[in-house]
Structure formats: structure tokens, C-alpha cells
Amino acid sequence: MKQRLLFLGPPGAGKGTQAQHLAESRGLLHLSTGDLLRGEVAAGTPLGQEAKTVMARGELVSDALVLAIVRSRLKQQAQAGGGGWLLDGFPRNVAQADALAALLEELGQQIELVVLMELDDAVLVQRLLARGRADDNESVIRHRLEVYRQQTEPLIAYYRERDLLAPVEAAGSVDAIAERIAAVIG
Ligand code: AP5
Questions:
Q1: What sign for the dihedral angle of Cα 123, 7, 41, 83?
Q2: Which of 52, 127, 144, 180 is catalytic?
Q3: What is the pLDDT of residues 114-165, one digit of tens each?
């Protein structure tokens, strides 16, 4: 079974839902940069204050800030003896992907698979409007989708060239999608 994984896909594709499920069932560390940032916002830390307005607009917070979070968590885990991990919502652009590659080289680790969750925009928007998180109103959702197309989608070619990409159809029930993901992870 592959156990160093990235979940890639547009907002609302179900990355968080599937990542949580998989991490629990397979004992992997689930690192969601979105959840970690929302935690900082809720705690009112300086980092959270910096991220709050950027997240509310549906834009990406600075690479340096996100990288600092991921670096400390992955280093902590490596020092505690390693193990599998699942990165959800990170990397979000090529600069973050390059920085992750450098960090993993430092840790002597490698990405084993990038699960790309694919879903039509109409279904994504419907799911997010039904959820109603602070950044789930229609204009911010549209902007998050644009940011995804411009900044995150280039990672599809990036990881395809590295022979790591596994596309998965993200329509249907949570269980059906989980089965498709399990099939590509092995
Ligand atoms: P982040 O938290 O990563 O949000 P996102 O990518 O927009 O993803 P979502 O959480 O909206 O969707 P998801 O694919 O995880 O789907 P989910 O499982 O939740 O990022 C938020 C913000 O933080 C960014 O805009 C940015 O500002 C900042 N940020 C985060 N990471 C960053 C980074 N690396 N660099 C810079 N900035 C960063 O499901 C969505 C909904 O659909 C839920 O209600 C769920 O219950 C439902 N659902 C899931 N699966 C199904 C299904 N099969 N059928 C029906 N409903 C379903």
C-alpha cells in the first residue's frame, strides 16, 4: 500500500472528506493546510490574523506561511519515527510543489502517489453552497475555482510528468469514491 500521498483537486471535490476517512482507516497523518489555517484563525494567533482576510477572499495565503506549517509537521513526524502521511490542499502551486520536493529530499522521503479528484464545476458549487463554510458563498466559490485553475491546475502536468498522478472520478457517494481511491492506492 502506498502511504505517502497527496490529494489534489478543486474546492468541493471531497479531498477533506476522503482524506480524513483514509487517514483514519490506514493510520496516516492527515495534514490539511486549510484545516490548520482555520485552526489558527479560530485561535486568533498572529498567523491566523494574517490568513483570515486572504482566506475569506478565496485567495491563497503566502507560500512562506503555509510552508512553515507543513515543514514543522512533517519534521515532527519524521523525528517521531516517520510513518505515512496524506497532504490535503497542499501543494497549491508550483512553488509549493518545488519546496515540498526539497523538504522531502531533506527528510529522505518521497511522494508515492498523487490522487487527483475530478468533478464537474456545477456539482462542486452545489456541494459548497450546501456546506456554507465562511468562504462558501457563490462569488468566493467562483474565485476559488479561478485560483485553482490558474495556480493549482499546473500541478496536474507537474505530477503527471513525474509519473505520480492517479485521476479518480469524484462523483457519486462517499463510499463509492473511497473504493475508487482504495483501488489506486493498493
Ligand atoms: P481548503 O480548506 O483546502 O479548501 P478547498 O480546497 O477550497 O477545499 P474544500 O474544503 O472546499 O473542499 P474539499 O475538496 O476538501 O471537499 P470537502 O471534503 O470539504 O482551503 C481553504 C483556503 O485556505 C484557501 O482558499 C486558501 O485561502 C487557504 N489555503 C489552504 N491551503 C493552502 C495552501 N496550500 N496555500 C495557500 N493557501 C491555502 O467536501 C466539500 C463538501 O462536499 C462538504 O460539505 C462535504 O460533506 C461534501 N461532500 C464530500 N463528498 C461528497 C460526496 N461524495 N457527495 C456529496 N457531498 C459530498
A1: positive
A2: 144
A3: 999 999 999 999 999 999 999 999 999 999 999 999 999 999 999 999 999 9
Tell me the C-alpha distance between 115 and 112, whole Å.
10
State if pTM tops 0.90: yes
Question: Which H or E run includes 14?
Answer: none
Q: Coil, strand or helix: which one is 87?
A: strand
Query: Cα(133) to centroid of ligand 1, in Å?
Result: 10
Asked if 165 contacts 156 with a C-beta cutoff of 8 angstroms, the reply is: yes
> Considering 4, 52, 92, 180, which one is annotated as catalytic?
92
What per-residue string of b and e applies to 89-104 under the rule 16 or more CB within 10 Å gives b?
A: bbbbbeebbebbeebe
